[in-house]
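$ run holo --ligand "nickel (II) ion" --emit tokens
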Amino acid sequence: MKIIDTHTHIYDEKFQLDFDTVMKNIKEQMEGIISVGFDLESSRKSIELAHKYPFVYAVVGVHPVDIKKYNDNTEKELEKLALTEKKIVAIGEIGLDYHWMEDPKEIQKDGFRKQMKLAQKVNLPVVIHTREALEDTLNVLSEFPSVGGILHCYPGSFQAVKPFLERYYIGVGGTVTFKNNRKTKELVHALSLDKIVLETDCPYLTPVPFRGKRNEPVYTKYIAEEIARIKEIPVEKVIEKTTQNAKKIYRL
Ligand code: NI
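-- output --
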């Protein structure tokens, strides 16, 4: 079995120069990738790519940092897309970001709740972004007990997320390979492999040994290798299980 990268921004301009090579490598080495939007435009780009490449799937939504772009028209358009485009596999990335704090907390929460409702309505899972806002994020998730999905780049402890693991998977990315990142290594150690999916968040968060350079989906193998080391299991097992998990949550 091959790897699925559950979180990419493959439409980013950092891929412009060698896009064909990047896609060729994915096609040869991987099972598939998910292209995640952060606003309507990047969501549409993700759908276009999903039409063009059989191994690409799309996630559509408005990121908390861009939440001022979210209005009734955006919502209608996202709903229409979610109901008509077969390769849309989730609503995201949505959530709360108190690090950049582009908009007040209440505005962010409002946009987040509206998109959680939308996911419920169109019966899709969600991809959650949370930064320096864990408690509020988990509180909103609690309000929607019928919605599940992936906590992307989850920054908290195992204890905090434990009550959510019945419905949510944890996206583990390149930061787990950073030598001093004890927190994420401990989280991976505590989590059952049944609850982990692999993600790059490329072009960001590049794993060792390419840290500092541009990230790309094929680098997920370094994340799988690190998880295998932490859990003291064969890397093949990590790949097999995380790919099964990705297929299950995105219903691929
Ligand atoms: Ni992302």
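-- notes --
The chain has a mean pLDDT of 97.
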